[in-house]
Design a protein that fits this description.
7 helices, 3-stranded antiparallel sheet, 5-stranded antiparallel sheet, Aminoglycoside 3'-phosphotransferase, Chain: A, domain 2
Length: 250
């Protein structure tokens, strides 16, 4: 087993195949097969570019269902862990290159309102406890609702996105190239969503304000102030996910 967090990843040695089994993320959607089919389609589209981990060519990538569990199969890639913070320009260009490539994807994907509904579904799974009062849950619901006026309900220009662009999902290949991973949350929306989450992840990994600014400048064309509403949406989503994940594991 490679890891066990929101999903379980298993390297099917000696085959160059990684199986990803859905665990915690099953709560996010009501149609798991359709959700995973979208990811396979997006990564199949990206495969010729080498920008992202590819669906497995050794066996059908899926999705497959066995004993009530959904899984997909991906090509094993030798890597050195996640990307580091040493070169902010390279980090910014990595996301720009991904977005430039994804702009050509024309397949069916959910949109911002679908994302809002998924977050609401996750929020509805929270149960009041000694550490989580009904009042706190309602406060989260109110914060999410307010974002409909600045993020989810606004007709932003949209394209295919990673959906969970973060430093944790950017791998350093053995050759030194940067490769994107885990497109399970892919959807169609404004690039601001990916970019805001990406910068938040840089800060979480220790990046200072100057490094973040350099990465943003390398991405190009967007001011940090434009990302503020999307950063707020990420913060609400992340808080709801952490609460749900803690209850799931307890």
């Amino acid at each position: 087993m490679i890891s066990s967090a929101s999903n379980v990843l298993v390297h099917l040695r000696p085959s160059p195949v990684v199986a990803r089994v859905m665990t915690g993320t099953v709560a996010l959607h009501d149609d798991h097969e359709r959700w995973l089919l979208r990811e396979v389609a997006v990564l199949g589209f990206l495969a010729p570019s080498g920008l992202a981990v590819a669906p497995s060519p050794a066996i059908h990538p899926g999705p497959h269902r066995s004993d009530g569990l959904w899984m997909t199969c991906w090509e094993w890639m030798e890597h050195r862990g996640r990307a580091g913070l040493r070169d902010p320009r390279r980090l910014g260009r990595a996301l720009r290159a991904l977005h430039d490539q994804l702009a050509g994807f024309t397949g069916e994907l959910p949109g911002l309102l679908d994302l809002q509904h998924d977050i609401e579904r996750l929020l509805g799974r929270l149960r009041p406890t000694a550490d989580l009062s009904p009042r706190k849950v309602e406060a989260l619901r109110a914060r999410l609702g307010e974002l409909g006026e600045t993020v989810f309900g606004v007709p932003w220009p949209a394209q295919a996105l990673h959906g969970d662009a973060s430093l944790y999902n950017l791998l350093r290949g053995s050759s030194g190239r940067l490769v994107w991973n885990d497109f399970e949350d892919t959807f169609r929306g404004p690039v601001h969503w990916d970019l805001a989450g990406y910068l938040i992840s840089l800060e979480a990994c220790g990046a200072d304000a100057e490094l973040v600014a350099r990465a943003l400048a390398a991405y190009g064309g967007i001011d940090r102030e434009e990302l503020a509403p999307f950063a707020a949406a990420h913060e609400v989503y992340d808080e709801i996910w952490r609460l749900y994940d803690a209850q799931r594991r307890s």
